[in-house]
């Protein structure tokens, strides 16, 4: 199996190196392997869906202790 570096993956997916690192840490890409402090991402890996909140509207929970 062929692997890409974080930098190569960032260029391929059109996102930042730091975002690729965060995706790898969260385990959202199948087949990712960490060697020491370097990540190896399979060449056939697909970019996962962006699960971050983009609307700017956050759910505010009410205080249940009142």
Order of helices and strands: EHHEE
User: What is the chains' assembly state?
Assistant: single chain
Give the low-confidence spans.
Answer: none
Radius of gyration: 16 Å
Structural class: alpha+beta
Using DSSP, what is the number of strands? 3
**Ends apart, CA distance between termini:** 57 Å
Please bin the fraction of helical residues. 25-40%
Q: Can you count the helices?
A: 2
Q: Order the strands across the largest sheet as they lie in space.
A: 1-3-2
Q: Mean pLDDT, nearest integer? A: 87
Strand content: 15-25%
Main β-sheet: number of strands, strand sense, barrel status?
3 strands, antiparallel
User: Any idea what the shape is?
Assistant: elongated
Brief summary of the model shown:
The protein has 66 residues and is an alpha+beta fold. The protein has helices spanning 6-13, 17-26, and strands at 3-4, 33-35, 38-42. 8% of the residues are buried.
Question: What can you see in these coordinates?
Answer:
This protein is α+β, with helices and mostly antiparallel strands and 66 residues long. It has a domain at 3-42. Helices cover 27% and strands 15% of the residues. The protein contains two helices and three strands; from the N terminus they run βααββ. It has helices at residues 6-13, 17-26, and strands spanning 3-4, 33-35, 38-42. Strands 1-3-2 form a three-stranded antiparallel beta sheet. α1 crosses α2 (17-26). The longest helix is centred in the first third of the chain and has 10 residues, at 17-26.
């Amino acid at each position: 199996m062929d692997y890409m570096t974080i930098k190569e993956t960032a260029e391929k997916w059109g996102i930042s190196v730091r975002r690729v690192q965060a995706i790898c840490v969260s385990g959202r890409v199948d087949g990712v392997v960490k060697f020491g402090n370097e990540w190896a991402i399979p060449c056939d890996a697909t970019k996962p869906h962006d699960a971050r909140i983009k609307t700017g509207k956050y759910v505010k929970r009410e205080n249940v202790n009142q």
